[in-house]
Amino acid sequence: MRTLSGVHTKKNYETSFYFSNKNSLMLLSFKVYQDKLKELLNLRIEELIVYFFSNYSKEYFFIDWLSLDFASKSEKVHIQTKNLFTLEEQIRKQWKLYIDENEIDKELFELEATPRLNSLKSLLDRKYIYVNDKNVNIKRIMYLLFSDQSHITYINEELKGNDFVQLIVNNKIKKTDFRSYQQLNIDFLIDNDVISVDKEETIFTTEKQLFRILIISNIYKYGVIHYYHWNQKLSIKKGIEYQQQEIDEMIEEGLLIYENTLFAKPEVDYLNYILNNSEFDNSLGLRNKYSHGSIVEENETDYFYTLIILVVYVIKINEELVLNEE
């Protein structure tokens, strides 16, 4: 897809046919949800957001947010959209104050500049886990295990896989099945305790190795994993304990790093793609469009994009508060 889509700058946000379809489905889902709320309960999503900040947070977490004033539903769509962008900035500033001061003071709020998305901190320790890009071994391990360009995915027409992990999971493979140049990579994985071989040189993985492969696999797929969530294939108790134990060890070994932020890096990229022109050449730049006095036409898609962003804030902040309490 990268080859077919042509040449892009280094500041291009990577999109695709699949990405566009997923975006369209998300927007349609929100429109349906908004329509159903109105039909069944005579409510808007905006009112649910107000409830979270005004009632729910105060009742369960004793947080007094400054009021969020949504535009009336009778206003034109572009007025409502512009108002949502203002509220998004207010939530950013209030969250920063809560992290820094453990309260949201109105006077400090007036003095606070709008923080960048990637600067918003977390209440949690070791929240997001990434590969350590400075560690050449972990980058090579990920490539060998999961890339379809890896040199150890193919032995013959009967023994092949989309990646190396699929190959050894679906087949009983011996080290000697590989050619000599491939065995150099197999030895590298063995030396780094990623896989093992028995006396007959059959390749296998221990429970510990398998769990590390699952961790690395999720980071390879999504760019990040959450320290406090678990692989759904395992039980909750076993999953969270094993994952955190292995992550801690891999951090000590210099294979992984962590960051304590409200949003993960892929989430920040997506939000910046929607909101700002400064990060990506091909961004939608909706915040700039509505905040800098541009003349805009009625656009329901822009409205739902902005509404989705506010719901994302609710989800992420609620997750922070719940996990911090636990």
If you had to describe this structure to a student in words, what would you say it looks like?
The protein has 326 residues and is mainly alpha-helical. It has helices spanning 17-41, 45-61, 77-101, 106-111, 136-146, 164-170, 180-191, 207-222, 236-252, 265-275, 286-291, 300-325; strands at 128-131, 196-197, 203-204, 225-226, 256-259. The chain has twelve helices and five strands. The strands form two sheets. A three-stranded antiparallel beta sheet has the order 4-1-5. A hairpin with a 5-residue loop joins strand 2 (196-197) and strand 3. Helix 2 packs parallel to helix 12, helix 3 (77-101) runs parallel beside helix 12 (300-325) and helix 8 packs across helix 9.
Strand content: under 5%
The shape is elongated
Indicate the structural class: mainly alpha
Q: What is the averaged pLDDT score?
A: 91
List the uncertain runs: none
Helix segment tally: 12
Give the biggest sheet: 3 strands, antiparallel
Ends apart, CA distance between termini: 43 Å
Question: What's the β-strand tally?
Answer: 5
- Strand arrangement within the widest β-sheet reads 4-1-5
Helical content class: 40-55%
Helix and strand run: HHHHEHHHEEHEHEHHH
